[in-house]
Amino acid sequence: MSCNGTDTANDTTAARRIAELVSERSGGKVTINVFNNDQLASGNMQKGLELLLDGTVDMDCHSTSIISALDNSVMVSTLPWLFGSYQDAEDAFFGAGGEYLDKVLGERGLTYLGAVHNGFKMMTSNDHAIRKPSDLKGMKIRIPGGDFFMAFYEAYGASPQAMSWSEVFSALQQGTIDGHDNSISTCYSNNIQEVQKYFAVSRHTYEAFTFMANEKKFAALNEATQQLIRDCVAEACKEVNAQIVANEETLIKDCEETNGCEFYYFTEEDVAEWRAVIADLIEEYKGIYGEEACTAFNVQ
Question: Which domains does the chain have, with CATH numbers?
Answer without folding.
Answer: 2-120+207-247 (3.40.190.170), 122-204+250-296 (3.40.190.170)
